[in-house]
Structure formats: structure tokens, C-alpha cells
């Protein structure tokens, strides 16, 4: 269906993810590893592919090396001869010399470049969120309403809505007001307990996009952000509708997460080790793809009393060796090694982490390429942990990439 | 001081006609005959508005507009062309106005200029 009209997909992947520090010390937020083998951006790109969208530009800027490599290695799967592509577009392609000033500016700076594709509609997505969505539904909704712009919205309890762009609608789903991080968010007309927040998913008719983006670029007082500036400027001028999110995750509660903080990151990963996680990674109808190298199978060895290699309530990437140690309620990326008598629980270990003998690790995130020396204890004494590491408000210790003892 | 307008137009007669009309309304006008020269002119002189044709040698009006947006995004640009079909062109939407050369074109041009910058 989407191929009858030409739809161009832009994934805004410049997010710094400052509140995810130190996981974003060396990488942009969309390339932060998630769920053992994925990166955050894989969810958005998988949604696009599963929705039949095959013309995708990923607009990048900040610390983009890791993201560029991931997309090259994992997403170079299209046929350019059929007009399909996932291309990485750095800042300053054709117009201007500035770094992108805001999300809208990243599109403005690429206007002439987008002109080559001449799409009928432009779908703007964020590379920062984890969710499953069939974008064909919003495209149908947009056409049915003869809209100029459609914003996908998600229901959250009123008191949580303050952190987001809040949308007010009338009975026809037409947006009356769009306010970024309001003091007192208005409830949804259909349910007084919730507010409708923008998911950062915008479907524009191309003409509307270009006109509003250029107008915004010319406003000196603008921060050139879609949520703060461009979307509010369309209200009252264009036909702007709110699309109520339809979740492909097929669970009781709808799943959409802005993995914005260390706590949110931790909780979203820990959800995956539950018996019935909210986010289902095992649905063959809505596959989430990523880059994975060829990996040997996971191995557990030793079964002598205390020296038993075991994994319980966890997800574990390929190439891991659990050698005489215990892993409980944890998420392990590929190539992790747990040595004898070590005890790892409620933790997230990224690629190439080595846990030495007799270590006790709890509620800890360990970034790539870290070798934890024998007998180290983390996650049991917050005062001690704070002396050495970043510790979040709720007591999650984070060991940065390449940390040396 | 009179506001300054840069006219980028390759047909001499048209350029004269536009310039004289705008001058009559109190604007100071400078004209060049293609996009490349227009961009050069913009580098060394400051203008308050640009009127640009689309079909021109060396660099067409839409590409010129893209370049102007990159360097001086606050400078208003009016496309003034004989070809209405460009109105649906992606790049035309980025202009402040799109006016077709017709019997009433010049009048429209003047009133749009006045709307964007008063003399």
C-alpha cells in the first residue's frame, strides 16, 4: 500500500540522551544497546520495514560513529535498484554549515537533498523510542481525514504527561492545541485520567512540511524543534489530526517507551526477563531485526556444588560462557564471560564483559569491554559504589565502556 | 534609506521592466542575469529581498533559492516565473511567494514585496 504513493521516512537520530550518561558518553542515544542484542534504533527501523516502508534516511550528528557502523553492518539489506534504501545522512549535506540546531533544522538543512525523492508524504520518526507500530495504520488514518499533518499519540496518566508534548483534541481527533512539557496537562476528552502525549511520530504532506519548516527556519526566536516549534505552528493553519497509537505488541497494555533515563533503561531491560514481559521480542509476525555477527552457542560449564554454571530468568546473547558462576534475572549481550563462584543478579552486561571469580554484582549496568577483577563487589553498598562509579537515584551503578580497574 | 532588492532574471527586457517598476515604488534595485552571479552579489552586498526567475543559464532559480536558504535563511525570496507548473515543485514551497508572470503579475509582485518589506 505505501508504495502507491511515495512516502519518505526520516528517522531523527541525533538524540544526545544526556540523562542516559554514561551509556551515551561515546554514542548517540539511538545506538545504545538494548535487550541483549539490539540497539534502540532497531525498533524504529524494524517497524518501518515491517510496515513496507523502504525509503529511509537516518539523520545523524552527535557521536555518530557507532550508529553509522551499526546501520552499515545491520541494515544494508535493501535493493537500491528497486528504489529502496536506508541511508545515513550527516548534518550539512547541501545547505548551510551549522551543526543541526534542532530536530526541525535537521530536516531544513536537507531540503534540497530530499527534493530528489519528491515524496507525497514524509513520515518523521524518532530513533530514541522502543515500541512496535504498523505505520500503514497512521497513513490510512491521515488519508481518510484528508489531513496535512497527523501526530501519533499515546495515553499516559496525567501526572506523567508533564515530561512530554501534550496534545488536546476535539471529538473528531483534530488537534486543538499542542504544548511541550506543560505545567498542567489537559485530560483526554475520552478519559479524564489520562493525557494524550506526542510519540514524536509525524506524518506530513510534503508541501505542509516544507512550508512550515522554512517558516520556522526564518524565525530567529525559534529553537527549530518539531515538538516545541513546528508542530504548534501548524495548529489553526493546517488540518492536524491525532492518531491514537495502535500497538503491534498485542499485549493488554500498550507499550511505548522513551528510554530517557538510566532508570527507564534499566526497567525496560529488566521487563524482558519476566515470565510474561510487556515487550514481546518473540513475535514472528513483527520481527525486530538487528546486526548480529556469527556467534558460537551459549555455553554453561561446571556442575560441582558451589561451582555451578547457571542462568536463571535471564536473556543471554550468543558467544557467552557461564563458567562455574551464577546469572539470575539479568540481560547479557554477546561475548560475556562469567567465571567461577561469581554471582550476577538483576544486572545488564554489554558485549565483552568479563566477570572475575568470586565477584558479586547486583543492580549494575556494565558497558562494553570491561573486565571486572576477581572478588569485586558492586551493588551491595551504595556509599562504596558512589566513590567509584556513576550511581543513579535509585541505586543502579553504571560502569562505563572500556573502564579499567 | 531605501530598501534594496536583488533581481535575478536572465531576460533583459523582463529585468528592466521589474527593476523600473520596483524603483517607481521607492525601492533600490540591482539586477543580475543568473543564479551564480546572484549568489556572488549577495556575498558582497546586503539586500532586503530577492526576486528570482526559475529558468536561467548556469544556475536555475530553485537551486539559487536552496543556496540562499542555506546562507541567509532570513532573506525573503519571491519566485517570479512564466512557468506555473513549478508551483508544485518541492523547492518552490520554500519561497516566500510564487508569482506567475502574467498581465497582472507585476502588480502582484509589487504588493507582495510591500507586504514582505515596506519601502
UniProtKB/TrEMBL annotation, chain A:
<keyword id="KW-0320">Glycogen biosynthesis</keyword>
<dbReference type="GO" id="GO:0005978">
    <property type="term" value="P:glycogen biosynthetic process"/>
</dbReference>
<dbReference type="InterPro" id="IPR023049">
    <property type="entry name" value="GlgC_bac"/>
</dbReference>
<dbReference type="InterPro" id="IPR005835">
    <property type="entry name" value="NTP_transferase_dom"/>
</dbReference>
<feature type="site" description="Could play a key role in the communication between the regulatory and the substrate sites">
    <location>
        <position position="99"/>
    </location>
</feature>
<dbReference type="InterPro" id="IPR056818">
    <property type="entry name" value="GlmU/GlgC-like_hexapep"/>
</dbReference>
<feature type="site" description="Could play a key role in the communication between the regulatory and the substrate sites">
    <location>
        <position position="61"/>
    </location>
</feature>
<dbReference type="GO" id="GO:0008878">
    <property type="term" value="F:glucose-1-phosphate adenylyltransferase activity"/>
</dbReference>
<keyword id="KW-0548">Nucleotidyltransferase</keyword>
<comment type="subunit">
    <text>Homotetramer.</text>
</comment>
<dbReference type="InterPro" id="IPR011004">
    <property type="entry name" value="Trimer_LpxA-like_sf"/>
</dbReference>
<feature type="binding site">
    <location>
        <position position="165"/>
    </location>
    <ligand>
        <name>alpha-D-glucose 1-phosphate</name>
    </ligand>
</feature>
<dbReference type="GO" id="GO:0005524">
    <property type="term" value="F:ATP binding"/>
</dbReference>
<keyword id="KW-0067">ATP-binding</keyword>
<keyword id="KW-0547">Nucleotide-binding</keyword>
<dbReference type="InterPro" id="IPR005836">
    <property type="entry name" value="ADP_Glu_pyroP_CS"/>
</dbReference>
<keyword id="KW-0321">Glycogen metabolism</keyword>
<keyword id="KW-0119">Carbohydrate metabolism</keyword>
<feature type="domain" description="Nucleotidyl transferase">
    <location>
        <begin position="9"/>
        <end position="272"/>
    </location>
</feature>
<feature type="domain" description="Glucose-1-phosphate adenylyltransferase/Bifunctional protein GlmU-like C-terminal hexapeptide">
    <location>
        <begin position="296"/>
        <end position="399"/>
    </location>
</feature>
<feature type="binding site">
    <location>
        <begin position="180"/>
        <end position="181"/>
    </location>
    <ligand>
        <name>alpha-D-glucose 1-phosphate</name>
    </ligand>
</feature>
<dbReference type="InterPro" id="IPR029044">
    <property type="entry name" value="Nucleotide-diphossugar_trans"/>
</dbReference>
From TrEMBL, chain B:
<feature type="modified residue" description="4-aspartylphosphate">
    <location>
        <position position="53"/>
    </location>
</feature>
<feature type="domain" description="Response regulatory">
    <location>
        <begin position="4"/>
        <end position="116"/>
    </location>
</feature>
<dbReference type="InterPro" id="IPR011006">
    <property type="entry name" value="CheY-like_superfamily"/>
</dbReference>
<keyword id="KW-0902">Two-component regulatory system</keyword>
<dbReference type="GO" id="GO:0000160">
    <property type="term" value="P:phosphorelay signal transduction system"/>
</dbReference>
<dbReference type="InterPro" id="IPR001789">
    <property type="entry name" value="Sig_transdc_resp-reg_receiver"/>
</dbReference>
<dbReference type="Pfam" id="PF00072">
    <property type="entry name" value="Response_reg"/>
</dbReference>
<dbReference type="InterPro" id="IPR050595">
    <property type="entry name" value="Bact_response_regulator"/>
</dbReference>
<keyword id="KW-0597">Phosphoprotein</keyword>
<protein>
    <submittedName>
        <fullName>Alkaline phosphatase synthesis transcriptional regulatory protein PhoP</fullName>
    </submittedName>
</protein>
